Amino acid sequence: MKITFMGAGSTVFAKNVLGDVMCTPALRECEIALYDIDGERLEESYVMVDCLNRNINESRASVKKYLGVENRRDALRGADFVVNAIQVGLYEPCTVIDFEVPKKYGLRQTIADSNGIGGIFRALRTIPVLEDFCRDMQEVCPDAYFLNYTNPMAQLAGFLGRYGGVKSVGLCHSVQSCSRGLLKELDMTYTDPIYEKIAGINHMGWLLEIRDNDGTDLYPEIRRRAAEKLATDKDCKDLVRFEYIRRLGYYCTESSEHNAEYNAFFIKKDHPELIERYNIPLDEYPRRCVEQIKRWKEDRQKYISGDVSHTRTSEYASYIMEAIVTDKAYKIGGNVINTGHLIDNFPEDACVEVPCLVNRAGIQPCRVGALPLQLAAMNMNMIHVHLLTIEAAVTKKKECIYQAAMLDPLCASQLTIDEIIRLCDDLIEAHTGWLPVYH
């Protein structure tokens, strides 16, 4: 079995996914291909993964490295699973562009890697690279599963599912941590295994049902405690999602800092008091990037010195591989195309996040039915932006970029149509060299 890791320079994430593989008996005697376009980071990851293989896997796996586009096909050749963790344009220059150019128009963001104007342009510079990956995969590993971890998830998984021509699924950390994180935040005790039902779109999947293992519905107490937090705990970091519970009735999968920019409710130029009221961390992602770069410089020696170990995490990748290889059934929350209306009140070409069964037959999405109308409406605000962004990437039509930005709730609530068009033009120009030519 061969596993190819695209974007292997993401050393810590490579450690988690490939360390999980080495902790799984059915997978540990595999070939691991590390691919990146940054030679220094690739070498660091190679040293780390090789040490991990010796320390926890008795060198059962074989680890090889592949640098640059000219070696990409060899990295992919014969792969059974391809894990994607690339970041096109990195923090500098592209993430900085995604934040600083909109600021000139008075448009502030928190994370800007999934939705909003930042998510649109992150998708536009990433989809062409995924298109190249898929073209290579069709020729050298046509039966491989493409496991995408790169954001913006809905746009990328939506492109892969409709245009990639390979077996694919989008994977996010937020589904498996949603329920227990909520219960911990509200100081609620529970007994595993809890029952949960989650569906929607990436970063705005809805916790539709949650029960203790004796069948007790936990939502009434969740709603009571969330309302109490909103009224009394001004230091709480999850007030946006607790406001969702109060106004919409349900909690969603991804953090409040993400969801603060997915709508027109919380970030408003004329109401700066909302930033403090809901503890909204503007410019949060750039701060994280700077801290992560600093932390990597401090931790780098630990990862490449040989003093590295690992315990299996909750990341889906190794469990998916194990289920397909061994036929040991496993359930994930996967990002897939809404084929056959897995969610009834969404378009069929939308990318949805729904429960999926995984076994030897592959990744099989489960039908959810219709979402409550208010939740579907929240999701649809983003789905149309996703679809137009994908349309722009496929057709290279600039008007589709404009239309995606015009329909984005945060952009539309802050800027006029003319300002949105000018903002898009400025971002296109600032991304010169990172985007194909749009007409």
Distance between the termini: 43 Å
The residue-averaged pLDDT reads: 97
Helix residue percentage = 40-55%
For the record, the CATH architecture of the domain at 2-99 and 111-172 and 296-304 stands as Alpha-Beta Complex
User: What's the Cα radius of gyration?
Assistant: 21 Å
CATH homologous superfamily (4th level) name of the domain at 2-99 and 111-172 and 296-304 = AglA-like glucosidase
Poorly predicted sequence stretches spanning 5 or more consecutive residues = none
What is the chain-wise order of helices and strands? Answer: EHEHEHEHHEHEHEEHHEHHHHEEEHHHH
Largest sheet: 6 strands, parallel
How much of the sequence lies in strands comes to 15-25%
> Would you report the number of β strands?
12
- Give me the number of helical elements: 17
Strand order of the largest sheet: 3-2-1-4-5-6
The helix/strand class is alpha/beta
> What is the fold named in CATH at topology level of the domain at 2-99 and 111-172 and 296-304?
LDH C-terminal domain-like
Shape category: globular
> For this entry, what is the oligomeric state of its chains?
single chain
CATH class of the domain at 2-99 and 111-172 and 296-304: Alpha Beta
